């Protein structure tokens, strides 16, 4: 928010701008767009110097976190009347557009929607072994036991013989559903429920990890590497 005092609050020690940028990086969000909103309430309205001041300060902060500012689009916008959101605004003639440089190539544009369209679709790790941490387990009348979770890596298909670690339970997947629709396969990022044979709800619990019993099933590890943000 570009308003007087608003940006300062957001970028202060416990401000939300800092918090959101750090959270995004910590959660593995690799691509960032900075929309400098409320440009209509700067002093004077739609101030170029205020935008440049914010751009400089936010660039410096996100660089410290781990982002490359050259790959981040900075767009001055006002959601109030939609300035620079879908089409270039006549109120900010000084803004010549945003431009980013990244190893996959360059991109540029004038408004926010173009910056969104320039985001590169990340590849889904379908070739890695299946890993699906359980978020919950339900018993559904007429269907049976339905574990629920998000596919992190690999592919889950009906007919797969899965093993649940660490309990070492093995069973066949009867069906896979997402948003009440049957799937032929679930890929990383999909939040799914899957029906399993001959396993009771009491035998499974949140935190168990499902894998393919025939292809690199999940096993206990002596040690692991973690990224901890304090």
TrEMBL record:
Residues 144-209 form the Translation elongation factor EFTu-like domain. CDD domains: EF1_alpha_II. It is found in: Cytoplasm. Keywords: Cytoplasm, Elongation factor, GTP-binding, Nucleotide-binding, Phosphoprotein, Protein biosynthesis. The keyword Nucleotide-binding applies. It holds the Pfam family GTP_EFTU. This is EF-1a protein. The gene is EF-1a.
């Amino acid at each position: 928010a570009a308003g007087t005092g608003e940006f300062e609050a957001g970028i202060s020690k416990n401000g939300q701008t800092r918090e959101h940028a750090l959270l995004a990086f910590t959660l593995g969000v690799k691509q960032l767009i900075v929309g400098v909103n409320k440009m209509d309430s700067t002093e004077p309205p739609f101030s170029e110097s205020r935008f440049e001041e914010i751009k400089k300060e936010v660039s410096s902060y996100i660089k410290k976190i781990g982002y490359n500012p050259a790959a981040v689009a900075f767009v001055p916008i006002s959601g109030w009347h939609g300035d620079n959101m879908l089409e270039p605004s006549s109120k900010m003639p000084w803004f010549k557009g945003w431009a980013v440089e990244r190893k996959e190539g360059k991109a540029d544009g004038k408004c926010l929607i173009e910056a969104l369209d320039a985001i590169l679709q990340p590849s889904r790790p379908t070739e890695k072994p299946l890993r699906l941490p359980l978020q919950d387990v339900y018993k559904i009348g007429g269907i049976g036991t339905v574990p629920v979770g998000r596919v992190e890596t690999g592919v889950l298909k009906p007919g797969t013989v899965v093993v649940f670690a660490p309990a070492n339970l093995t069973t066949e997947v009867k069906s896979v559903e997402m948003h009440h629709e049957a799937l032929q396969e679930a890929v990383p990022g999909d939040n799914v429920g899957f029906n399993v044979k001959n396993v009771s709800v009491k035998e499974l619990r949140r935190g168990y990890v499902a894998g393919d019993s025939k292809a690199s099933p999940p096993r206990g590890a002596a040690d692991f590497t973690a990224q901890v943000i304090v």
